[in-house]
Amino acid sequence: MNGIHGARRSTRPGWLALTVVPALVLLLLPIAAVYLRLDVRTVLAKLAEPEIVDALKLSLITSILATVVVIVLGTPLAYLLATRRFRGRRWLEALVDLPMVLPPTVAGFALLMAFGRAGLAGGALGAFGVSLPFTTAAVIVAQAFMAAPFYVSAARAGFQGVDVRLLEAAASLGADERSRFVRVMVPLAAPALAAGATMTFARALGEFGATITFAGNLPGSTRTLPLAVYVALQSDLDAALVLSALLLAVSFALLLSLRGALSRPVWMGSDAPR
Amino acid sequence: MTRRGIRWLVAIGLIVIAAFAPSVHAAEPTTLRVFAAASLDAPLRELARAFEQSEPGVRVRFNLAGSQQLAAQLQQGAQADVFATADERWMAFADSLGLLVGAPRVFAHNSLTVIVPRTNPGRIARLQDLARPGLKLVLAASAVPVGQYAREMLVDLGAEPGFPPDYARRVLANLVSEEENVRAVVNKVQLGEADAGVVYVSDVTPVLRRYVKELPIPASANAVATYPVAIVRGTRATALANRFVALLLSTKGQTILSRHRMLPATSEQP
User: Fold this and answer.
1) Is residue B87 packed enough to be buried (19+ CB in 10 Å), middle (13-18) or exposed (0-12)?
2) DSSP code for B194
3) Cβ(A160)–Cβ(A220) under 8 Å?
4) How many A×B Cβ pairs under 8 Å?
5) Both B232 and B105 in a single domain?
6) Do A231 and B69 touch (CB under 8 A)?
7) Whole-prediction pTM
């Protein structure tokens, strides 16, 4: 991780600082604009409103559950991609990454076409008495769909970073693949898995387009924080401001905590390439 | 930086400034920006084609959304020439903020209808069935004109013979989503995901009729939607915008609107 910094040469810091000013303005000004408009009384008043509390609770619960779903479904996938060579691997990798670049509305529409009541798998789900659209479960599906690539790619990189010699040593001591995975791979890749899970949670928390398209928009059951911001933008700008500030702060804190965790030396074991 | 480099920089800067600077003698704009309620999509597009034919070189561009969203966009400084809403509430809101020039004029009316998918998964045969628990009903949010009209209509239906007095409350208990405009309501029913939705009569086009069935609402309880139009303050296309509004109110314009099952503006005066 130190390679780039090692190559740093003495530039004139004045010029460099000047060239990053436009980028900083672009990044900071919108955030500053939100916080400069806030005043404590509005924040407290809005945060006590039941609709906002509902959206907050719903967002937390669905994002946590979406992260759990992604970990359960994504870990084997990441392990497969990290440890196996097979035909169509590139296709699978591209497929896994697809939601990252897909417009969320397209994802929501595709989910509707697949898991909607009248969708491809709708009949099969209906046979079990399950109808996903307009339910909290649909929110979780939309969030998991959109956020999964963040976990899978981080987990795959984590698994790939585990020193092969440690796995060989474990194998020579008689550990089968299952116990190598549980006792060597997962502990050594744990920071990467945690980082991926954090990114997934942050992305799920911010999910909007797929949610409103697939799950609908009803307070208490499907109106998450980003949807509440969207609704408030058309009726209650104060509420929109408070919710935006909240989402900005939480997302930034999550990303910051990620930096802290990743900069620790445990990242990929002491033999990690420098 | 070398002197040559600086000269280049200045030259590029001048070109950029020249490209973005508004020309001093600005001609009449050739684009008309119309912010219109989502329910006006089909009729206004046809009207715009007629307008473009009579105004060579002119292009009409639409921003179609829920009236509440358009009003919010104008409030935030969005640039537009003509503003047409599906109720008087959001027009009055824009007017109160000083966003309009002159008085808004009503150019059309509309009425409501209940649509269910052709497959009718909720087995809805009459309006009373909408109160049956467990149905999936989709409405626009009450900030959206059609959402507000729909809620008024449900209350009025409760006063009709053959309907329970708490009809509106029981129907609204089946609400599964509050959509941001009428097109989103139409889509949810068209896809067969919702059991029923309340939309405008004008939304039920021949194409849509292949996917949905209508449950007519008795005229005595049917809310009448009112569509006002106004010129937006700050427009540089005042003359063009005025001619567009004139076409909207003309016999030709009214004929086009009625072809899309909208009601003429004159129905206001009985």
Assistant:
1) buried
2) S
3) no
4) 54
5) yes
6) no
7) 0.83
Tokens for B221? 């309880």
A234 CA: distance to closest CA in chain B (Å): 5
Question: What CATH number is attached to the domain comprising B179?
Answer: 3.40.190.10
What φ, ψ does residue B84 adopt, rounded to 5°?
-130, 125
Say yes or no for a CB contact (<8 Å) between B176 and A216.
yes
Q: What does the radius of gyration of chain B's CA atoms come to, in whole angstroms?
A: 23
pLDDT the model gives residue A259: 83
Q: How many CB atoms lie within 10 A of CB A52?
A: 21
Q: What is residue B27's predicted lDDT score, i.e. its pLDDT?
A: 65
Ordered domains of chain A (ranges, CATH): 41-262 (1.10.3720.10)
Contact flag B138-A218 (C-beta cutoff 8 Å): no
Contact A231, B190 (CB under 8 A): no
Q: Verify that B140 and B233 share a domain, yes or no.
A: no
Task: Tell me whether residues B193 and A218 touch, CB distance under 8 A.
Answer: no
Q: Is residue B56 over pLDDT 60? A: yes
CA-closest candidate to residue A138, choices B148, B122, B188, B208: B188
C-alpha span between B136 and A80 (Å, rounded): 41
List residues in chain B touching A: CB distance below 8 A: 66, 68-69, 72, 117, 119, 121, 136, 138, 141, 143, 175-180, 188, 191-194
Cβ separation of B192 and A117 shorter than 8 Å?
Answer: yes
Q: What is the pLDDT of residue B9?
A: 63
In a domain, B1, yes or no: no
Quick one: average pLDDT of A227-242? 89
pLDDT at B270 over 80: no
Nearest 5°: the CA angle B34, B36, B39 is 145
Domain residues for the domain of B139 are 110-224
Kindly list the residues from chain A whose CB atom is less than 8 angstroms away from the CB atom of residue B117. 118
Residue B48 has pLDDT above 50, yes or no: yes
ipTM passes above 0.85? no
Inter-chain CB proximity B175 and A231 less than 8 Å:
no
Type of residue at A170:
A
**Residue A7: pLDDT above 50?**
yes
pLDDT digits (tens, 9 = 90+) for B18-30: 555 544 445 668 8
- Using CB atoms, pick whichever of A134, A212, A234 lies closest to residue B136: A134
